[in-house]
Design brief:
This protein is an alpha+beta fold. Helix content is 55%, strand content 16%. It has 4 helices and 6 strands; from the N terminus they run H-E-E-E-E-H-E-E-H-H. A 4-stranded antiparallel beta sheet has the order 3-4-6-5, covered by helices on one side. A two-stranded antiparallel sheet has the order 1-2. Helix 1 runs antiparallel to helix 3 and helix 3 packs antiparallel against helix 4. The longest helix has 38 residues. The N and C termini lie far apart (47 Å).
Length: 185
Amino acid sequence: MAAYDKADLERRMAGSVEALKHDLGGLRTGRASTTLLDPVQVEVYGAKMPLNQVATVSAPEPRLLSVQVWDRGNVGPVDKAIRSAGLGLNPIVDGQNIRLPIPDLTEERRRELAKLAGQYAEKARVAARNVRRDGMDALKADEKKGEIGEDERKRREGEVQKMTDGTIADIDAAATAKEKEILGK
């Protein structure tokens, strides 16, 4: 068991918040966001590649995404990849440019997305709690080895708990903000 490392725990907890923010960034809110196309993988040159490695994605208008494909031969595969990504977008091909109008979200779809945001937040909370457990286990192991005393272990456990509480508050704040944005409140 590794010795207690506060910096490592802080880094891992911050990582769970960053991962949540990345996941939430991919949820559609009715406004055009280039992160919406991050999960799209395009089958080109005999391999699957992320969309941003074969095209430039931009949001010229609040309700429109523009995908500028670099190689004319890849326009078809990019169009197909966007259609099959399950994002509910209908690409309009215009030469080497693909326009993606962002449709309005139905109330049912908004509720689904808000629920998904909640699931992402719970996954991040679980990750933060796992980091907390690792920290507590490391402290108990250090005490057993005689590297720290009981008082020191208890003090550091308090630090770990405070760190966890702060991280979970950040996760809740990010999820609540995203849910409000999705539900349009």
